[in-house]
């Protein structure tokens, strides 16, 4: 934090670049520099409009405005290290440190998002969410507008302060590959695209069932906001970040399943944040690492990207409490040029933005958030940004700039605007909040937007009665863990969903049988272990040679095929994106070998196996899209849409046991014990379809959009 800040009275609006404004800005910058240089020779009384010592200035901060702004901030506490820690902090925060509790009490911040690093066991999670709420309780003795918003006084003996604004505690519990809760305790299920594969036969059944189960988990743990469901329409097979997180490729299918999820969760008093507006389904770039661009026409945007949002907003039963914005350029919706002050702008590492000058991403666009979402779609709920610490934003803007521009665009809440991972960061956040308040205090229009957001937030917290659950004594919350009946129903639901969604893309002529020798390739050793376990359980105890694509070098010669009866390849395409590269989501990353070399070796072995007439089975563990080479090289292709493996201890001897509905279904299908019932919720490329043989089974064709 700087010792001094420069106050420039200006209206904060997205920057529009043109020659005249650039010249004017240069002169303005020169004047400011000269003014600052001269100020060091002046008396303190002459510095009022140039530079003011930070601590002195913060004494005059509008505390009421600061409290309103704080409610608009949703921070993360993913990691936390002591001041003596060396290097980048990667120590998970599992208990609430005193410094963070103090910072929460002083700042009156509105929300906290938790990640898998924060969540280790049911008891630990309940203690953490309870402590987070308690930290806020002494802080709200005189909160503007609180009484009018229906937050009633409660006087349990546990708490000294009866009046407070409860904290939003959020999580990304989408199901499937984005499941933050520990899966050894809480089922993550197969995910949205697997649910999409069941819709032709079961309509909304599995969307409702999985959403209900996950909502009950969150209620049990003291979590009141779920950043889900994803209602993006995935119409890009190579999408690195959405893909199987979407229900599918067909807008009406996405609308129906997403709407069912929203209704179910909110009936359980879990607020959802449907995402990512106006759509993240057709991107080649992950917004964690760059600024994606969608060059759809307005007509295409209306009929595909916006359609699910329009439909769920238009139905009062499925209208989400929150909508999350996307850090994505949509030139057809807003072509305003986007240039940040940071030097990194000139050398932005962004493959999609280099061909054309970047335009304002949706998160920072008033045309998109206010004109389209608020006015055209008539959305009256809370607009929350995607995480502002993503490179799509940070390469252009400082944290304060990002917050101010998103507020100006119409966002009610900013997610992860300031990193806090140490005691120094906690102190720095308070100074940063003061600085942010000073900037906003100078703009009456922006203050009006803050007031409107603040009213919406308090009204919503009262509507969902978040305070009631938060005020329960810790002992009462922990007592709820005694009922574990949900585990059996979750287990059965996970197996049922996997069976209903497992999809045959290309037929298997002869089921595999006991005593056959298998050569198997899987994304990592844990997937190998899961396949071997279910094969031994359901078929026999014969040896299976399974190699990890991540960690075991695969030779391209044919020696591996000696005495082999079948080759099985588990594919987790597209390649690991940012999400896996940070969290790994169960994919082990240590000792990874070059993926391209590994795939070349596998392709060579599969080609040799085809020449030797050895059966070859491809299972798409993630994305179901196949290439022409896949269609021509493999004798059978299946899609599970899911690669999750949970490590549990449920055997009589308390030995480690792996639970994976996807691998249970895989083994049953390839041995003829289970019929693949799912229907592709996406369309394969024309070339891939032509390369496939004519279907010989009774499987239904992929659904087509009406």
From TrEMBL:
Record's keyword annotation contains Hydrolase: yes
Domain of life: Bacteria
Keyword annotations of the record: Glycosidase, Hydrolase
Enzyme Commission number, as recorded: 3.2.1.52
Catalytic reaction annotation: Hydrolysis of terminal non-reducing N-acetyl-D-hexosamine residues in N-acetyl-beta-D-hexosaminides
One Pfam family of this chain: Glyco_hydro_3
Keyword Transcription: no
GO BP annotations listed: carbohydrate metabolic process; peptidoglycan turnover
InterPro entries xrefs: GH, Glyco_hydro_3_AS, Glyco_hydro_3_C_sf, Glyco_hydro_3_N, Glyco_hydro_3_N_sf, NagZ_Beta-hexosaminidase
Domain Glycoside hydrolase family 3 N-terminal intervals: 77-458
GO terms assigned for molecular function: beta-N-acetylhexosaminidase activity
Listed PANTHER family: BETA-HEXOSAMINIDASE, BETA-HEXOSAMINIDASE-RELATED
Family: Belongs to the glycosyl hydrolase 3 family.
Official protein name in the record: beta-N-acetylhexosaminidase
